[in-house]
């Protein structure tokens, strides 16, 4: 058994995991990779788009969703770069968390230039969530406790140290005058584990995204102390003030979008951008966004590519300022 055979076996395994390599297992079935466990924002992004596009996906088949968790999106990113260079039927869910991983080099030497950025299709604010029976009724209540004894407040999120949920807390700490080196943050495997840990009392505060906690807020299991948006959110969070309204100038709004393998053909790239743009203009998509606590936002093609590059640079600067990277 020679090295060529082993190489073919390795490629075949990767193709099975990531919907098939076009050179060896051509397929018209389109696939969306959610680079985390089910239940989080990336999973929601893939499943919402699969529902909205239906059979209008490029290739004419319903979009299959596959979860590839690990390293805050890094496992999926690395596999796509290594083995899916020419797949026209593959998209991968992305968000600011993806760009933080790249900015802070959690994905090794890989950069945003190693893939093609297709489009952002929606957005949502982040929130500061606590249990419904927590002693804090507002963000200012929490901040008073936090300033007095920083180590007494346990935060937890569905991202790695330096990832999106951690960064929200560090920015809030800086705005509140809390020493960022004294912040207690527990990295968990995703929003479902974070919510479970919050309800169990393992952590006291979850800096999640609106869609991740909407169901628990509606069932009155969780309380939202602040919305990290430019404005208040509609629906179930309409009465929750922003962090800015409560004196902390912190905004963290999460766009939901997609990238594709670097080797995607130009016609396929243009088709994905066009299909996603058309999708976001339908009443059905806007209703789906509202149902999941998201707001309309579209940015595609070259504009999205420039936006990504600018955000990676900005995240790298902020990460240095806060001490996450040197």
How would you describe this structure in keywords?
326 residues, D-Maltodextrin-Binding Protein, domain 2, two-stranded parallel sheet
How are the SSEs ordered, and which strands pair?
Elements: H1 3-17, E1 31-34, H2 41-53, E2 64-67, H3 74-83, E3 90-94, H4 96-103, E4 115-131, H5 139-148, E5 154-157, H6 164-176, E6 184-187, H7 191-200, H8 210-218, E7 222-228, E8 253-261, H9 266-280, H10 283-291, E9 299-300, H11 301-322
Parallel strand pairs: 1-2, 1-3, 5-6
Antiparallel strand pairs: 3-8, 4-7, 4-8, 4-9
Quick synopsis:
The protein has 326 residues and is an alpha/beta fold. The chain has eleven helices and nine strands.
Explained architecture:
With 326 residues, this protein is of the alpha/beta class. It folds into two domains: 3-124 and 254-322, D-Maltodextrin-Binding Protein, domain 2 (3-Layer(aba) Sandwich), CATH 3.40.190.150; 125-251, D-Maltodextrin-Binding Protein, domain 2. 41% of the residues lie in helices and 17% in strands. The protein is built from eleven helices and nine strands. The protein has helices spanning 3-17, 41-53, 74-83, 96-103, 139-148, 164-176, 191-200, 210-218, 266-280, 283-291, 301-322; strands at residues 31-34, 64-67, 90-94, 115-131, 154-157, 184-187, 222-228, 253-261, 299-300. The strands form two sheets. Strands 1, 2, 3, 4, 7, 8 and 9 form a seven-stranded mixed beta sheet that branches. A two-stranded parallel sheet has the order 5-6. α4 packs across α11 (301-322). Mean pLDDT is 89; it is low at 1-26.
């Amino acid at each position: 058994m020679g090295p060529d055979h082993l190489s073919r076996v390795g490629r075949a395994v990767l193709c099975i995991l990531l919907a098939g390599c076009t050179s060896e297992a051509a397929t018209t079935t389109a696939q969306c990779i959610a680079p985390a466990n089910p239940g989080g924002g990336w999973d929601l992004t893939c499943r919402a788009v699969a529902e909205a596009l239906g059979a209008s996906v490029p290739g004419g088949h319903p979009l299959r969703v596959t979860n590839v968790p690990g390293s805050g999106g890094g496992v999926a990113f690395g596999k796509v770069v290594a083995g899916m260079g020419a797949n026209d039927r593959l998209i991968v869910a992305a968000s600011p968390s993806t760009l933080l991983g790249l900015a802070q080099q959690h994905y090794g030497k890989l950069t945003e230039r190693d893939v093609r950025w297709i489009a952002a299709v929606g957005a949502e604010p982040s929130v500061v969530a606590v249990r419904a029976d927590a002693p804090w009724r507002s963000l200012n209540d929490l901040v008073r406790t936090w300033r007095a004894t920083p180590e007494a407040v346990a935060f937890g999120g569905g991202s790695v140290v330096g990832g999106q949920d951690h960064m929200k807390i560090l920015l809030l700490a800086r705005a509140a005058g809390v020493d960022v080196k004294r912040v207690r943050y527990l990295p968990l495997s995703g929003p479902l584990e974070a919510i479970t840990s919050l309800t169990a009392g393992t952590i006291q505060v979850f800096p999640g995204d609106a869609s991740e906690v909407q169901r628990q807020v509606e069932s009155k299991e969780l309380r939202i102390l602040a919305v990290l948006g430019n404005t208040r959110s509609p629906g179930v969070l309409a009465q929750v003030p922003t962090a800015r309204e409560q004196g902390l100038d912190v905004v963290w709004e999460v766009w939901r979008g997609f990238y594709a393998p670097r080797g995607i053909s130009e016609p396929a790239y243009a088709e994905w951008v066009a299909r996603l743009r058309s999708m976001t203009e339908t009443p059905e998509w806007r209703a789906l966004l509202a149902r999941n606590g998201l707001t309309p936002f579209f940015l595609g093609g070259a504009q999205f590519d420039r936006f990504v590059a600018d955000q990676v640079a900005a995240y790298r600067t902020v990460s240095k300022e806060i001490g996450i990277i040197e």
